[in-house]
Please model this.
Amino acid sequence: MFEYAPAPESRDIVDIKPAYGLFIDGAFTDANNHFKTVNPASEEVLAEISEADSADVDRAVAAARKAYENVWSKLPAAERAKYLFRIARIIQERSRELAVLESIDNGKPIRESRDVDLPLVAAHFFYYAGWADKLEYAVADPRPLGVAGQVIPWNFPLLMLAWKIAPALACGNTVVLKPAETTPLTALAFAEICRQADLPPGVVNIVTGAGETGRALVEHPGIDKVAFTGSTEVGRQIARAVAGTGKRLTLELGGKAANIVFDDAPLDQAVEGIVNGIFFNQGHVCCAGSRLLVQESVAEELLDRLKTRMATLRVGDPLDKNTDVGAINSAAQLAKIRELSQAGDNEGAVRWSPPCELPDRGFWFAPTVFTGVAQSHRIAREEIFGPVLSVLTFRTPQEAVEKANNTPYGLSAGVWTEKGSRILWMAQRLRAGVVWANTFNKFDPASPFGGYKESGFGREGGRHGLEAYLR
Amino acid sequence: MTVTPTIPADSGLAEITSTAGSLRGFLHGLPGVDQVGAEERAARLATRSIKKSAKAEAIDLAVSMVDLTTLEGADTPGKVRALCAKGMHPDPGDASVPMVAAICVYSDLVAEAVRALAGSGVGVASVATSFPSGRAPLEAKLADTRRAVEDGAGEIDMVIDRGAFLAGDYAKVFEEIVAVKAACGQAHLKVILETGELVTYDNVRRASWLAMMAGADFIKTSTGKVSPAATLPVTLVMLEAVRDFRARTGRQVGVKPAGGIRTTKDAIKYLVLVNETAGPDWLTPAWFRIGASSLLNDLLMQRRKLTTGVYAGPDYFTLD
Amino acid sequence: MTERLSVRKTYKLFIGGAFPRSESGRSYAVNDAKGTFLANAARASRKDVRDAVVAARKAQPGWAARTPYNRGQILYRIAEMLEGRRDQFTDELRGSGLTKTAARTEVDAAIDRWVWYAGWADKIAQVTGTANPVAGPYFNFSTPEPTGVIGILAPDGPLLGLVSVLAPAILTGNTTIVIASEPAPLPAITLAEVLATSDLPGGVVNILTGHRTELAPWIASHMDINGLDLTGADEDLATDCEQAAAENLKRVLSPTTNDRATDPGIARMTAFLETKTVWHPVGI
Model:
């Protein structure tokens, strides 16, 4: 008894056009080449998307420069603020539509796009709207940089857009943003929102495309700032390309976060935190808690509870309101997850997944946990970026810190214990930009986010997020 | 301690409850409950969307789980008889509506309820032990209980001594439950924790284990006389406790949220909570009850909405 | 054809989210700059002060417990509703003697001022809070918390002045009792109508109209008020009030002649903030 009936969110709320142009200087313009964006849950083609070449990027950067020189930098800060407040309000007004669109294009469950992504997107614009006319309270003599070239990933398409555009505009910059090639639709919807808000043309430009478009943007001599969120590999390339140009750079890259559970942890909540840490957004999260470090004395009990809990995860249609785990974003990503999981098997870790039926079409991977993982295994070192958890054990706090830090990454970490002083002791020693204690994967516009080491540099969010866009 | 409760010998619990010190050590050694995390989990489960056939089944299940309750100073035999009639035939115009699980009354009205419900299959539950405060000598509580059982109550809803619990005298609370359990004989014992007075989820978890180790057949959130009464996170913590208790001892204990559950939407949230926390084994009136009065009519209204396709109004359902 | 007779508004007090008349049953005539009758305003009594303090105290814990983000959203909503009444406020300010252009400028400045403060709700702690590097194994941080219930003697700038003293007091989680401008109280009550329809919980702002010199001493001496803003008091009244406020050590903001056209800074917010410092050991 109590199989939930299908509860699909209505798709009628969104209107996907057959084809989309580039958003440059306040208008949609066509490009020479096109590519398709698909629904990863069904492999259905959603729309034809324009692929910006270097000439298109030139035009976008020129439009952004013109808007910067003639309009945006001359506007009183309070008026900039009011534009951003408008955008925040329109996002709130259209939030369900945007959530559905995000889930269709990305594959993430509607529960998450509706309850996590969209509220955070609106909140981010609200937060930075408020900063626009208060910059001198954060930084002495705040001056904008000029034109920002921004490249964002496919895991939180609209949220990453908000993280990039809101602070940039608040600080007085104009932007050219390239969304990921597999998830361009909400960025294009955002372009329409800019028009509803009467944002002056050229302040926000959206150029769609893949790696080549991104390269054209970050290497363009007309931009003053590069902001990138994505893989550490591409981040390294960008850092090389930007070297010596004088462009300002912030990078938010990969991670292999340790989620550390002590034997005095609130176990039921720790289990939730582990699940939320690695299965939220199908594990397509740079700060995902992909390495569970559990104290040996409680490992067996915790893993029993974790497996019981994993068996209740509902995998399937992203638009079903009861779905917990949706589709993998692309065939390429699915192949990568499979390859690394296979490596886990080969290296002798023990794989477990709850019984779950995966749809025939689309890209799917069952929630998976590997036990018996050693630090030397690939699945303990490489970012899988999927719903795959590697479990390791430790005996003492020192050992937990040592193992947690034993990675080139340093984006985030989790600590679970009811002892406050130990939380702070661990937090002091963990080489990670965000430490969650007795919670995981929490985000707020007021809270700075970003990595140590090869997880990147610069912070997004909070007062610190302004520094990336001010001179 | 003088009385030994009935728990399997291999669970190790007999030893735990053998001294006040070991009992306290065990209860304080249970994993803590992080308030924020527990409330987040309950809130997230509350976003489940139960539609169509699943909703129809859930409504009927919820009706069959209702302990239809009247616990007022102004209760009379007439009021109890009316409630019994309602419990046996919730919707006079629709025989397919299941009857409720039990009628819950004060102990002096048990005989009236037993007469009214004879042969119907609807149970009679009685609150006892100086409900709702529980502030009376043990002898009075036991007499209250025996009287209700003698009059035919099949279920006893006792209250724990919250004062003793908050003072840290777990052994006293334990022994009292054991004594009431003995006085119940064959009657099922529901132990009311009054979670609104225990305040913290850590206390709720400890009290749940204490009651289960002392022999409770059910653990129940509230009397309905203290605010807050039943809440989703409190019920979540109690469902985790019965799940863990069965895993450890093999014995299944039921859960009953009571008070403040007034709408179908609320009731379905509780069923989702049961389904995804303790599991489907608890999704029967034998292991999950909802203590309520006004909830029943809302369930009937929503049920009719599903069958007719139009929203119903309160004038079309009986007020008893 | 005769001109349509207008339906006039009764201007009442604003206490606990409701609009009661003064319990005293009194009112006073409000005239425009030329001496023409505009309306009768309620003339509040000391008992209205007492009721307003009860309402403000009751609302305070809940208002302070809202997330700063939520308070910011509500304040922004108030700005939206102010914008919707732009013409009404402009007319009312012209009644107090301003030209149409000056009235419009004042209304626009008041709306923008409100937006400016709305943005502060989730930032003031990031500007005034600190992590303190103490010499020992302790994590130590300081955060601002609202002072509590604040009595405000509003200045005579009937809208921008009122907004400039009210918004900074409430956005941090304080609740308030405001004595409106005595000669020009009407925009304050219209502002109350905006507040009453903007998701602001009842009791966060309570507005009394009446005689400043009659009401101010009751506020200044009230033992359940934690802070006092004397912006609208003249020198003698301010001194008396400050002395009375010393009894329970109210935080007092003395009258200032700051130019309300410029960036007001954060002093009006920090005047009614306490600083809380927390120590916690760091260890295994």
